[in-house]
Amino acid sequence: MGAWGSGSFENDSALDWLQEVVEAEPALVGAALDGVATADDQAYLEVDECSAALAAAELVAAALGRGDDRLNDDAAAWLRDHRDEIRGVGAGRARRAVERVVQRSELRELWDENGADTEWHDGVRELLKRLSD
Fold first, then answer.
1. pLDDT of residue 116
2. What pTM was estimated for this model as a whole?
């Protein structure tokens, strides 16, 4: 994973996924969330799918008016044209995906190597709060 920061849009996996969304369709946001949220509890979720799910959850939170400042410029520009569609994805759906990433995933393990209370952990906890119904 090419990461240069702890934010949801500060790694290559999330940016690659965002480019796919921009070029394809908004339905990829829900697909990224569902792919993680519905994974078996014992399934090992890889970095790319987890990074996409966190980026998708950030888009949902921002669409609900809870975190536009957490988006990069490309995500913010795209969301201006798709806010209503992404708002319809729902906070609960996004929250389930984020909780699954936190529960057991390669992304969590990578960040845990730096301790259990990094900026990434703080950011994910903050995202979960913004997704609370």
1. 87
2. 0.95
